[in-house]
């Protein structure tokens, strides 16, 4: 709610009238604000924990460093930027009337959000192209790790280039004749500031919004749809051809070979399903926010309608868009067995043991390979732990307590490789 007051300033017999508008300091009631806080905190925790685990799993295991997984790592980094820079500031901005932060935070928050979204969608395009070449044209040279790293660098350069106008245009300004009232005490008022894109030409904002919508949402996702459509047709024809060959070929040896090919094709199909799900979730998560942004610039909405969008619809649209950053790790764990095993191993391990006692775990591996007993502090039988040796994740289980002497316990452990 807001209140309007008319002030009368008289000087030399001339009266000047000025409208002053007062807004409450907090935009919502306690219950609505609590629901916003819980919802945003939930996706923040999922985003940070899930994407940090994805980064650890890909970086900590040489076998996970494939071209596709490097792109997934880049997605996780983009999602972490969203969690660190965008979710907290957007939550506070949705709770408090006006912009409560500095001009620098205004620029950084908008810039990082735009760069992370651009990087994510360009990475999805790169993944679609890589899968398209791998499936549709299997005889052509496959993209290598150096090529993938160069593509990732190009992705970030393009993302930053698209968002440069945002950094220059975003600014914080005081809204004249608008004030915030804290706790309904009109003796305790604060000036109202807003963070917005200040283009010299009013039409430039609409043009820039349309350019962003076209180049980092509409065209890339249309291209991704075409790529995965072609991949789906290719896989379908491949599976049909394999089945026909198995029915016509009576050789047991050839059947086994064909069966192996079918197993490989099933793995390919599962990877494609995972990547399609990632792209689909991105499409659906960001669609409401892009729709609102286009409506705000092109629909010619009235002041009351814009207030409704800002107070209730935009917070939900932002939450849905940011939730995409927390859903991706869940998709990886559901569809990819390597990520699933990595998540399970980390969850079962002692917290941060692999980082705090790295030298100890290296000795554990060397001794365990020789079949010797090892000394480990503060462990119990059946305790599990996770550590990294030479870039490879290792999972150990304490099998037996052998000896207790001088407050030191000796255990025999079993080493498993992820």
TrEMBL record:
Q: Which GO terms describe its cellular component?
A: plasma membrane
The record, for InterPro entries, names:
GPCR_Rhodpsn, GPCR_Rhodpsn_7TM, NPFF_rcpt
Q: Which residues cross the membrane?
A: 33-59, 71-91, 111-129, 150-172, 207-228, 271-296, 316-335
Task: Please list the coiled coil stretches.
Answer: none
Has keyword Transmembrane helix? Answer: yes
The question of whether Glycoprotein is a record keyword is answered with: yes
Task: Write out the GO MF terms.
Answer: neuropeptide receptor activity; peptide binding
One GO biological process this protein is involved in is: cellular response to hormone stimulus
- SMART domains on file: 7TM_GPCR_Srsx
- Keyword list, A-Z: Cell membrane, Disulfide bond, G-protein coupled receptor, Glycoprotein, Membrane, Receptor, Transducer, Transmembrane, Transmembrane helix
What does this gene product do?
Receptor for NPAF (A-18-F-amide) and NPFF (F-8-F-amide) neuropeptides, also known as morphine-modulating peptides. Can also be activated by a variety of naturally occurring or synthetic FMRF-amide like ligands. This receptor mediates its action by association with G proteins that activate a phosphatidylinositol-calcium second messenger system.
| Protein name in UniProt | Neuropeptide FF receptor 1
Species the sequence originates in = Sphaeramia orbicularis (orbiculate cardinalfish)
């Amino acid at each position: 709610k807001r209140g309007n007051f008319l002030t009368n300033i008289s000087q030399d017999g001339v009266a000047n009238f000025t409208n002053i508008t007062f807004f409450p300091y907090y935009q919502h009631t306690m219950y609505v604000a609590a629901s916003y806080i819980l919802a945003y905190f939930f996706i923040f925790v999922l985003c940070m924990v899930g994407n940090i685990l994805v980064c650890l799993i890909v970086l900590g295991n040489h076998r996970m460093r494939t071209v596709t997984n490097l792109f997934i790592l880049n997605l996780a980094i983009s999602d972490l930027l969203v969690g660190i820079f965008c979710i907290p500031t957007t939550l506070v901005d949705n709770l408090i009337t006006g912009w409560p932060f500095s001009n620098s935070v205004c620029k950084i928050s908008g810039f990082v959000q735009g760069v992370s979204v651009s990087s994510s969608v360009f990475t999805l395009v790169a993944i679609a192209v890589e899968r398209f070449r791998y499936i549709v044209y299997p005889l052509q040279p496959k993209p290598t790790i150096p090529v993938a790293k160069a593509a990732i660098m190009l992705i970030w350069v393009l993302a930053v280039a698209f968002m440069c106008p945002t950094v220059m245009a975003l600014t914080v300004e005081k809204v004249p004749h608008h004030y915030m009232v804290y706790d309904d005490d009109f003796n305790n008022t604060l000036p109202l500031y807003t963070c917005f894109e200040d283009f010299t030409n009013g039409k430039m904002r609409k043009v820039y919004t349309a350019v962003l919508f076209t180049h980092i949402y509409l065209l890339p996702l249309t291209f991704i749809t075409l790529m995965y459509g072609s991949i789906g047709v290719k896989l379908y024809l491949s599976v049909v051809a394999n089945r026909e060959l198995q029915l016509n070929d009576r050789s047991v040896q050839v059947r086994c070979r064909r069966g192996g090919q079918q197993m490989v094709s099933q793995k390919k199909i599962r990877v494609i399903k995972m990547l399609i799900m990632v792209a689909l979730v991105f499409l659906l998560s960001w669609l409401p926010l892009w729709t609102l942004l286009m409506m705000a610039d092109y629909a010619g909405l009235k002041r009351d309608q814009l207030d409704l969008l800002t107070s209730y619809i935009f917070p939900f649209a932002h939450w849905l868009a940011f939730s995409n950053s927390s859903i991706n790790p869940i998709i990886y764990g559901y569809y990819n067995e390597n990520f699933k095993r990595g998540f399970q191993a980390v969850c079962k391990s002692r917290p941060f043991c692999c980082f705090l006692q790295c030298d100890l775990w290296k000795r554990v591996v060397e001794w365990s390979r020789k079949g010797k007993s090892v000394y480990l502090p503060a462990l119990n039988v059946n305790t599990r732990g996770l550590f990294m040796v030479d870039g490879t994740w290792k999972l150990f289980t304490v099998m037996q307590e052998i000896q207790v002497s001088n407050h030191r316990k000796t255990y025999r452990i079993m080493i498993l490789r992820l």
